[in-house]
Specification:
The protein contains five helices and twelve strands. By secondary structure, it is α+β, with helices and mostly antiparallel strands. Strands 3-2-6-9-10-5-4 form a seven-stranded antiparallel sheet, covered by helices on one side. A three-stranded antiparallel sheet has the order 1-11-12, with no helix packed on it.
Length: about 220
């Protein structure tokens, strides 16, 4: 089949686009507003951007039928800080609850029964039950136009300034135990998945030392 997104002429019961770029890691973003109120929301338009230094991004559209950016976007732009909490299979129900479209100022973490703990460098708190946290400082925002003048997509980029990993999430040989913590990922429709199987492929071809360093995330030497 072939279809043009602008015409929405795929002829299927549901738009297939979000089931094409999958799985998408979930950025579970905690922020504070100017009054110091906690906001916690999951975003599947999320990923890392480089590693030396590390940056991450998440993207959000406006509120439905509104021109306002989502609270997470507004909070980051106004306070310049946020935390990425790793969403896991064990926390899937809480992640789903925090995706609810509630009014500004409502604490989604409290709605989901989640305990929040202080961060070390930034002010937004962390989800205590999450095994990994990335403390971030705001870097920039890119605004992409939507189908109409009232709709926008905001891409928020932050620089990672602190990383928390629970000790029991690290294997004896010093790797993150992905199979134990089972990071959660978004598929299309109402579908999710989690990591329960991994396999290894060694790099091939020329310049293996450079590729090995990049795959291992080693810092670039000055």
């Amino acid at each position: 089949m072939f279809y043009e997104p602008d015409k929405n002429d795929h002829g299927l019961p549901h738009d297939p686009y979000k089931s094409i770029v999958v799985p998408r890691p979930i950025g579970w973003i905690s922020t504070l507003n100017r009054a110091g109120q906690v906001n916690l929301a999951p975003f599947s338009q999320f990923n890392n951007l480089g590693y030396d230094p590390p940056y991450v991004m998440f993207a959000a559209a406006n509120f439905p039928n509104d021109t306002r950016p989502k609270d997470s976007v507004t909070n980051v732009i106004e306070t310049c800080e946020f935390v990425v909490n790793m969403a896991t299979y064990d926390l899937r129900e809480a992640v789903n609850i925090t995706s609810s479209a509630v009014e500004p100022g409502i604490d989604e973490a409290a709605l989901a029964g989640l305990d929040m703990i202080p961060s070390r460098i930034v002010k937004p708190p962390r989800v205590a039950a999450s095994p990994v946290h990335l403390e971030c400082r705001y870097h920039c925002t890119l605004s992409l136009p939507g189908r109409n003048l009232e709709q926008s997509h905001y891409i928020v980029v932050g620089r990672v300034v602190g990383v928390h990993i629970k000790d029991d999430a690290i294997t004896a040989d010093g790797r993150i135990d992905v199979l134990k913590i089972r990071p959660l990922a978004r598929m299309g429709y109402h579908d999710y998945t989690s990591v329960d199987h991994i396999f290894t492929m060694p790099p091939v071809g020329p310049h293996l030392d450079v590729r090995q360093a990049g795959l291992a995330g080693k810092p670039v030497k000055d």
